[in-house]
Amino acid sequence: KQTAFEKSIDSASQIMLQKAEDEGIETAWDRYEQQLPQCSFGQLGICCRNCNMGPCRIDPFGEGTEKGICGATADIIVARNLLRMIAAGAAAHSDHARDAVLTFKKMSEGKAGSYRIKDEAKLYSLASEYGISAEEKSREEVAVELASALLSEFGKQEGPILCTKRAPESRLKLWSELGIEPRGIDREIVECMHRTHIGVDNDATHILLHGLRTSLSDGWGGSMIATEIQDVLFGTPEPKKSTVNLGVLSHDKVNVIVHGHEPILSEMIVEAAEDPELLELAEEKGATGINVAGICCTGNETLMRHGTPIAGTFLQQELAVITGAVEAMVVDVQCIMPSLGNLTGCYHTKFISTSPKADFPGTARMEFHEEEAYATAKEIVKAAVENFPNRNLKKVSIPEEKQECMVGFSAEAILKALGGSPAPLIEAIAGGAIKGIGAVVGCNNVKIQHNYGHVNLVKELIKNNVLVVTTGCNAIACAEAGLLVPEAAALAGDGLKGVCEALGIPPVLHMGSCVDISRILVLASAVANSLGVDISDLPAAGAAPEWMSEKAVSIGAYVVSSGVFTVLGTIPPVLGSQAVTALLTKGLDGVIGASFAVEPDPFKAADLMLEHIEGKRKALGLK
Ligand code: SF4
Q: Is 70 in the pocket of ligand 1 (CB under 6 A)?
């Protein structure tokens, strides 16, 4: 059995893990231990239940069954399973985008009065990108036209998806030559399900090429649309300061946690927490105010735009409840553990599910619809406030740990900090002060000590003068480790340190939530276009040191398809097929100009990324 110290490198989490053990509370780590040893067929990706003649499984040692009942080999089964993971991940990001656009549409039609356009410049620039003229039209008319243009990207039958045009010309040409230019967001996902039905696509390479196409419909489609329209609605993030970790929870205020992935509701919760009526009620109930804190990417969204503090990463969602100080855990969609139902029952915490798509055992359901957005948000915050007197002080223990961070580095904010163009960044890279760019993203996974992979990989990169851009739980982990403050430049190599000190920025730039990896694509394109090269020529590498979700599989696939070498910290279920493994780790290089590596040790992963960056520098004639 692992100790609290072995489960996490974060001291606030260790304290809560110890508290959980003392109180006999079960966490994800305990359930992981109960699952061991995990099914080897599942780990290798060689079990199939795509039809009811099965389930079938392949003997990995070549001594037993080599084919499923239909004749599918390990290569076919592994590739089909991977394609279904990509489809699920792309669907999650893209359905999030669809909801954001539908909210925008309702707002534009005057049916969602709680929302406003916060970034008018982005509205007009997006409209012009979509060929919508603003002449003699009201702002709302332009918005309505933009909403239908964006919605048509989902159901489009013939591509390409328009945002792909933001990629360098060379990438577009390559995608087109390979036949993987995404046509319509929903179309690619539906085709994944069709192709993986028994008796359809049965060639591993052919199947995986469609995986790349589907992932591109996520990265340059769904995710990018989500980011852009959320910026229009809620504002494009700009640098600001905040605090992270479980210590942001308050002893004397009502604690409301917003957890999940969409900002549509949490934006309203942040506003409702400042409502004088609710503040007065909080005072009546004995609290000194209302404290909203985030977890996962809903948290990242409000952090980036409002500086709302973050209580933790994916693996800290249970730990936040275990503090005994959370009045309401308010969730929308994605990465929300169903275990929260039982867990919140052990404390006074109200577990409130809000999405029409996502319910959980043990929730107080308060379904959210844009038409009554603010009223519902107020009701939710009120329920939290009324729950404050139920806090059992004997069960409360909030770790002291909280860390300052500087966040809000959208692509626009980074370009602004550079004086309007990527030229100073390119000069710093060309001159060698910055060796390259590392994009480090992704989840937590109980298979890796919490935050160990994230923090050590990023520290190694900055020590070697690689500027790191980050999103998702990696960004939160880095913030908890104190890497998102300008003072962290002291941990960077001399070159990067000099650049950070001159610009007053941290060596690790928080670019947002997981859908905001699209911001990294936009930034990479801007740098590649300025240099007149392809993204695959840049001294840049990606990593997901503690990934776990199907969304991360889609992300990895679109980052590689965009030309960026990517190191995964946990092993995807593909090792049952040598052909698929070889294609992902080597073969793709010759096809798409980038490939995957798998390396659980963050120090070795950093070496792989540094070696790749050095190779790209050499190819560009840089020292
Ligand atoms: Fe077995 Fe083929 Fe059916 Fe999969 S699709 S369960 S391998 S018969």
A: yes
Q: Residue 190 to residues 48, 99, 180, 197, 199: CA-CA distances in angstroms?
A: 19, 18, 15, 11, 16
The pLDDT of residue 35: 97
Strands 290-295 and 254-260, by their bridges, are parallel
Is 399 close to ligand 1, i.e. is its CB under 6 Å away? no
E strand spans, 192-251: 240-244
**450: DSSP letter:** B
Q: What single DSSP character describes residue 218?
A: I
Q: Using the predicted structure, report yes or no on whether residue 46 has a pLDDT greater than 90.
A: yes
Shortest-distance atom of ligand 1 to CA 69: 8
pLDDT digits (tens, 9 = 90+) for 357-394: 999 999 999 999 999 999 999 999 999 999 999 999 99
pTM, two decimals, is: 0.97
Q: What is the 3-state secondary structure (H, E, C) of 482-506?
A: CCCCHHHHHHCCHHHHHHHHHHCCC
Q: Which residues contact 576 (CB under 8 A, 6 or more apart)?
A: 41, 44, 45, 46, 58, 60, 74, 77, 78
Question: Coil, strand, or helix at residue 283?
Answer: helix
Phi, psi of 548 (to 5 degrees): -145, -25
| 3-class secondary structure, 254 | strand
> Atom 2 of ligand 1 has which residue's CA nearest to it?
70
